[in-house]
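Input sequence (71 aa), recorded before submission:
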Amino acid sequence: PERAAARQPANVDINYVYGTVLLDSRRYAEALARFEAARNAAPLYAAAWRGITDALDALGRSDEALASYRE
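Predicted structure, token format:
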């Protein structure tokens, strides 16, 4: 997914899938960046918002995770 994301940085699906891979690999800050890229490309993409919330929570940023969930 890394090469695909580099070739298509605004692709919602690629960023989301790559974020999921990074989250599963415990690379939380990188995952957050990918989920945010997906959200920025498609603000109504609920899965990206969920990924942001999960990454923030994993980073220990619970208050931000809760705020993201509410958005």
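Checked by second reader. The chain has a mean pLDDT of 89.
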